[in-house]
Amino acid sequence: MSPQPALIAQTFAALRKDPLGIAGFIIVVLVLLASLFAPMLAPSDPLEIDVYNRLADPSWEHWLGTDQLGRDVLSRVLHGGQIAMKVALVTISVSLAIGLLLGMFAGFGPKWLDRILVICFDTMRSFPTIMFALAVVALIGPSLNTVMGVIIITSIPAYARIVRTQTLALRENDFILAEQAMGASIPRILRSHILPNIAAPLLILASMDVPAVVGMEAGLSFLGLGVSPPTPSWGSILNDGYSYLRNSPWPIIAGGLPLILVTLGFTFFGESLRDILDPKLRGKGGAD
Amino acid sequence: MLAFIARRGLLALLILFLAVSLLFAMIHMIPGDPANVILGPKASPELKAEISQRMGLDQPLLVQLGRFYTDLAQGNLGVDVFSDRPVFDIVFEQLPYTLVLVLAAIGGATLLGVPLGCFSAIRRNSLLDRLTAVLSVAFIAIPSFVVALYLLLWLAVKWRWFPAMGAGEDGDFMDQAHHLVLPAIALGLGWVGYIARLVRASMLEVMEENHIRTARAFGLSERTIIVHYALRIAVLPTVTILGMGIGTMLSGALFAEIIFSRPGIGKLLHEAVITRNYPVVMGSVLVTTAFFVLSTLVSDIINALLDPRLREDGGSS
Question: Which residues 156-195 of B are in CB contact (within 8 Å) with A?
Answer without folding.
Answer: 157-158, 190-191, 193-194
